[in-house]
Amino acid sequence: MNQPHVRPLKLGVIGDPIAHSKSPVMHEAALRESGIAGEYAALHIKPERLADMIAAVREEEYRGINVTIPHKENVMRHLDELSEDARRIGAVNTIINEGGRLIGRNTDGIGYVRSLKEEAAAMLEGRRIVVLGAGGAARGIIYALAAEAPERIVLLNRTTERAEALAREWSDLADIAALPADRAAEALQSADIVINTTSVGMHPHVDEVPLDPALLRGGEIVSDLIYNPLETKLLRLARDKGCRVHGGLGMFVYQGAYAFEYWTGVPAPVEAMRAAVLRDMNVAAKPK
Ligand code: ATR
């Protein structure tokens, strides 16, 4: 049915660089699948143009914007309102334009947890979780994990002080502890779920692992935020040991799914979104 009074939804992602972002193909597939008229643009924005771009988001009536590296922290000061999780995580990846009022949210952590629960661990309550890394990606994930009432979250990071600072900052949210990397064996001995949030193992450094695989027992779930490659060396070795493995593609899909749902108010067509990303990755991987 024609709906001439409904204006096409204007969406996009800002980042620098942005050319390789899979968000446009994923969201355009979601719009198509949902029968919503609109477009999703990849917007290459250098840091010095960020303020102007945010003004344009308001004036040009973008309904929603995703924010990626290097703007996730700096964009916050240009917004009118922040969700509690974005404020505490200290990063925004999704902006919703409510009639000229820009609201910043963070869907990375909740997207990750939804993916983990759908694809690997239906219940996180009472689980013992080990998180490798304590950087920006770890913050979103740990904040969302804490809301699931795990028994304990142990942070292992190359720079122990950074993990300790994070454990202190969020001691009100859950039982969170930091251990120096040389006590990894102790942490892993009783882990139910091990999550890599570092970039170790990401393309092109596909032969690197963020953890000595000999420390895995075989019954735990091993999860990696990396989705290029789809299965990291850590996941391959963990699978060989009998662990259940969970890759990073689902996190990317579900962070986008939450954003799509905030913008449109309709359930995201998650499988169409995942298929569009996979198709695009295969096309990109094929030699010309
Ligand atoms: P991101 O936003 O991707 O998390 P980040 O904030 O720079 O990026 O954090 C990167 C994380 O990966 C950190 O935990 C970092 O450890 P340090 O805090 O010690 O820097 C970790 N990391 C990156 N490269 C690493 C490597 N080669 N070995 C171990 N840890 C690494």
Short summary:
Helices cover 37% and strands 20% of the residues. It contains 10 helices and 12 strands.
> Which sequence of strands runs across the widest sheet?
2-1-3-5-6-4
Query: What is the average of the pLDDT values?
Result: 95
CATH-assigned homologous superfamily of the largest domain: NAD(P)-binding Rossmann-like Domain
Ends distance:
41 Å
Number of domains: 2
The largest pleated sheet is described as: 6 strands, mixed
- Topology as a string of helices (H) and strands (E): EHEHEEHEEHEHEHEHEEHEHH
Which ligands accompany this protein?
2'-monophosphoadenosine-5'-diphosphate
Structural class: alpha/beta
Question: What is the level-2 CATH architecture name of the largest domain?
Answer: 3-Layer(aba) Sandwich
The CATH C-level class name of the largest domain:
Alpha Beta
Q: Could you give the count of β-strands?
A: 12
Rounded to an integer in angstroms, the radius of gyration calculated over CA atoms is 19 Å
What is the molecular shape? Answer: globular
Counted by DSSP, the helix tally is 10
Q: Quote the beta fraction.
A: 15-25%
CATH fold-level assignment of the largest domain? Rossmann fold
Low-confidence stretches: none
Q: What is the helix fraction of residues, given as a range?
A: 25-40%
